[in-house]
Design a protein that fits this description.
The complex is a heterodimer of chains A (about 575) and B (about 120). With about 575 residues, chain A is mostly beta strands. Chain A has a single domain, classed as Quinoprotein alcohol dehydrogenase-like superfamily (Methanol Dehydrogenase, Chain A), CATH 2.140.10. Helices cover about 5% and strands about 35% of the residues of chain A. In chain A, the strands form ten sheets. A five-stranded mixed sheet of chain A has the order 1-33-34-35-36, with no helix packed on it. Chain A has a four-stranded antiparallel sheet with strand order 2-39-38-37, with no helix packed on it. The longest helix of chain A is centred in the first third of the chain and has 9 residues. The two termini of chain A are about 25 Å apart. The relative contact order of chain A is 0.14. Chain B is mostly helical. Chain B has a domain of about 80 residues: Cytochrome Bc1 Complex, Chain D, domain 2 (Orthogonal Bundle). In chain B, helix 1 packs across helix 4 and helix 3 crosses helix 4. Classes of the chains: A mainly beta (about 575), B mainly alpha (about 120). The interface between A and B is medium-sized, with 35 and 30 residues.
Chain lengths: ~575, ~120
């Protein structure tokens, strides 16, 4: 692992396509750049139709199975949804029996504070430890060999509406973590913990005064006016302004910058928070050592639609406008795909990757969206109809995309949904939701509610797409064999030709796929693909009739997806596929 | 607090007085209760109309922690495991009873147990 880090620092090309893939998967996005690209090439377009299931294991839990397993050496690590059990599977033995299972103490009260099901987005391997978050506001580090708990640190406060399902990121010796709670009026932050001890070394808020944002105007490329995290809010509304950090983090070791997105401002009723509400719905570049803010760009100012910007920031070097640029690529909930210079924050490309009605485009000179003001919402505006995308986003941040250095394209799930949005005034009562909106969905134009696409981020256009009946909510992995994998809500795990989008293979995995597939090399030298099955996340809320386990909770189907439960119930299975 | 649908060891229910709602289930109390339901952010977890969201549906005729007046009052006042906050520190009993009246006034769907996708006109050999 340490050798791998040195190689990344020395090579000029960040995404590592010129080095031999070590066959492991030690961090959520595969590497610091979060490309989710596997350099393994045994599985090809020619042989993928012969993929078969090799192994499966029931996790014993039923929450939405977001996130992805890790493979470190010859051990696979799986974190379950609440109650966040950590399994360590021995890949050298037939049937991959457990080496150990770690059962943390975790507070079930978190189930009522987590907005969007009992999910967990995964662990990271660093410093000999498996590090992940418990739903109830703690980060734990477990010895990767023995399963012994090494440290447990409280990072979030459920009484304030904070829960912690995101996957931590390790940059150097800093563990970077953030909270969920955009629906609970939290005062959002990221924290840097010491990887050896779990001690909290710094806390950087996403709005408020510069001293709490760890922002120094005039330093680095930070061009924010002094205390812009206060001046873009009315009064002290920033103190309950949201900006959760529930998605993915990436890192450029040469620039020494971590990149992450912040989520929605609270409450949904815009009229309670006039102003641009910086830095909600933004990408922030910070130094992992001390958390200081270097640059920031806001995707959706004064958000009217819950367009969280927590989706991954994939770091690549691309030729844009005839010049090689160090960029980050981000598929925002707001339906635009952004290519941004990751050194300075300069906006290079912003084009819609999904159906968009709330804005006519993004002004590249100002970086601001050209908003259709008939689609802005607020308590005095009543029921605003026909907003696309829905608040599930053109893509959910829960569905991380992948990049292939071979094709130069990005591969991502997308949703084709629209919504009506009726806001109402709401009072913040700590520990209870702080929302103030009713937002029913309807399918977008075309009849398909989802599409898995390949995207050219240099030009800002779709290359190919596979339409799906239901929204596509899984993550992706793309390989050096030019095969890309994704899963569907109705329970299919699929492979497609990364160059053409031709479907090669599919298998019904027993429950809808809301997690991200990975690829690894087993101890036998063969290439495998692993993925979770287990519908949930927002789909547990929206399609409550997929539940079967609680006789006291019987719901009507979602009116925009009335037959989802015909194809899937909740589940929890880890699958491994191979040739 | 009695739970009539619990098993009682030996068949003997423990002695207890059940709370009953002092308010009648009428449209005024139900309307007041729906306003409290929103003002206290209950709809944020239980969904608009209490149809279910993060928290369970309150209008399906099924009760995780009991559906008597007293059980519902206790759920709201003291909270419940798995995430129902305790509201007794900020809500008066009168306000809680209005919410109970609102929930009780909601219609329970007639055909809750079965969700079907195949038309009943289909013939089978």
């Amino acid at each position: 692992m340490r050798l791998g880090s040195l190689i990344l620092i020395c090579l000029p090309i960040l995404q590592g396509n010129t080095q031999r893939d070590d066959g492991q998967w030690t961090m959520p996005g595969k590497n610091n750049a979060a490309t989710r690209y596997s350099g393994l090439a045994q599985i090809t377009v020619a042989n993928a139709p012969r993929l078969k299931p090799v192994w499966s294991f029931s996790t014993g839990t039923l929450g939405g199975h977001e996130g992805q397993p890790l493979v470190v050496g010859s051990t696979m690590y799986v974190v379950t949804p609440f109650p966040n059990v950590l399994y360590a599977f021995d890949l050298t033995r037939e049937g991959y029996p457990l080496k150990w299972k770690y059962r943390p103490e975790v507070n079930p009260t978190a189930l009522g504070i987590a907005c969007c099901d009992a999910i967990n987005r995964g662990a990271v391997y660093a410093d000999g430890k498996i590090i992940y978050n418990l739903l109830d506001g703690h980060t734990v580090a477990v010895d990767a060999a023995s399963g012994r708990e090494v440290w447990k640190t409280q990072i979030g406060d459920m009484q304030q509406g904070e829960t912690t399902p995101m996957a931590p990121f390790v940059a150097g010796n800093r563990v970077i973590v953030g909270p969920s709670g955009g629906e609970f009026g939290i005062y959002g932050w990221v924290k840097g913990l010491d990887v050896a001890t779990g001690k909290i070394l710094w806390t950087a808020h996403n709005m408020g005064p510069d001293s709490l944002m760890l922002a120094r105007p005039g330093r680095g490329h930070y061009i924010g006016d002094p205390n812009i995290g206060v001046s873009t809010w009315e009064g002290d509304s920033w103190r309950r302004g949201g900006a959760p950090v529930w998605g993915w983090i990436s890192y450029d070791p040469q620039l020494d910058l971590i990149y992450f997105g912040t989520g929605n401002p609270g409450p949904y009723n815009t009229e309670q928070r006039p102003g641009e509400n910086k830095w909600t719905n933004s990408v922030l570049a910070r130094r992992p050592g001390d958390g200081s803010l270097v640059w920031a760009y806001q995707f959706t100012p004064h958000d009217s639609w819950d367009f969280d910007s927590n989706a991954e920031m994939i770091l690549v070097d691309l030729v844009v406008g005839g010049r090689m640029r160090k960029v980050l690529v981000h598929f925002d909930k707001n339906g635009f795909a952004y290519t941004i210079d990751r050194v300075t924050g300069e906006l290079l490309v912003a084009e819609p990757f999904a159906n968009v009605t709330w804005a006519k485009g993004i002004n590249k000179r100002t970086g601001l969206p050209v908003v259709d003001t008939t689609k802005t919402t607020g308590a005095s505006r009543g029921n605003v109809k026909g907003i696309c995308p829905s608040l599930e986003g053109g893509k959910s941040p829960a569905s991380p995309s992948a990049y292939s250095p071979r094709t130069g394209w990005f591969y991502t799930a997308t949703n084709n949904l629209c919504m009506n949005f009726e806001a109402a005034p709401v009072t913040r009562i700590p520990g209870t939701p702080y929302i103030g909106a009713t937002t029913p969905y309807m399918p977008g134009p075309g009849g398909n509610m989802g599409e898995f696409i390949a995207w050219d981020a240099a030009r800002g256009r779709k290359v190919w797409g596979i339409k799906e009946k239901f929204p596509v909510w899984s993550g992706s992995v793309v390989t050096a064999g030019d095969v890309v994998f994704f899963g569907t809500l109705d329970g299919w795990f699929k492979a497609a030709d990364a160059k053409t989008g031709r479907q090669l293979w599919k298998f019904k995995v027993g429950s809808g796929v809301v997690g991200a597939p990975i690829s690894f090399r087993g101890p036998d030298g063969k290439q495998y693909i692993a993925v979770y099955a287990g519908i949930g996340g927002d789909w547990f809320l929206l399609s409550g009739d997929v539940r079967s386990d609680d006789p006291a909770d019987v719901r009507p189907p979602a009116d925009f997806a009335p037959d989802l439960a015909r194809h899937t119930s909740q589940g929890g299975i880890v699958w491994i596929f191979g040739l | 607090m009695r739970y009539p649908d619990h098993v009682a060891a030996g068949g003997n229910q423990p002695p207890a007085a059940d709370l009953t709602n002092p308010l009648s289930i009428d449209s005024a109390n139900s309307t007041d209760g729906s306003k409290v339901f929103s003002a206290m952010n209950c709809d944020g977890c239980h969904g608009g109309g209490a149809l279910g969201w993060v928290g369970p549906s309150l209008v399906d005729g099924r009760w995780r922690y009991g559906g008597t007046d007293g059980a519902m009052f206790q759920s709201i006042f003291y909270g419940r495991p798995r995430g129902m906050p305790a509201y007794g520190g900020i809500m008066s009993p009168g306000a809680i009873w209005k919410v109970v009246a609102y929930i009780r006034a909601q219609p329970v769907p007639a055909n809750v147990p079965t969700e079907g996708w195949v038309s009943t006109g289909e013939r089978r050999p």
